[in-house]
């Protein structure tokens, strides 16, 4: 039998995953930030970063994994699965590794998000090199540069969200 805490954690992960999926779908309807360069803002990462800041690495990984697995099935965009999976895995890994620095106040969630955004594009580029070839390298400098303001905005929004919701529920405490 599951405890109340387990059920609450499962429901929270499901809600956060649904929010990430909704944000990713919304963003898929928008044009790229720069015409002819396949870069988006990364709104779904807002939920991953929020989950990292307020809950745990495990919870954030579950939210990221569910989003990467479910989005292609729900949207029909199956061709981008490997790009998204590689980018999300690298992005999550660096943001999870930087979490102790954020919790110690030595790095802001904005810096954490910029690192995650940049590594997301590294992951996408690596998959592109394997599937498309060296032509993918032409996009990387632009994607890398765009990842800085995009990651900063996402990190700022996640930081605001975590603070606002922490103020609204003072009994909730973040876990590792």
What descriptive keywords fit this protein?
mainly alpha; single chain; globular; 6 helices; 176 residues
Question: How would you explain this protein's 3D organization?
Answer:
- By secondary structure, this protein is an all-alpha fold.
- The protein has six helices and no strands.
Secondary structure topology:
Blueprint: H1 4-28, H2 43-54, H3 57-75, H4 81-103, H5 109-131, H6 140-168
Structural class: mainly alpha
Helix percentage? over 70%
Low-confidence stretches: none
Number of strands: 0
User: What is the terminal-to-terminal distance?
Assistant: 25 Å
Radius of gyration: 16 Å
Number of helices: 6
Order of helices and strands: HHHHHH
Shape: globular
Percent of sequence in beta strands? under 5%
Mean pLDDT: 90
Largest sheet: none
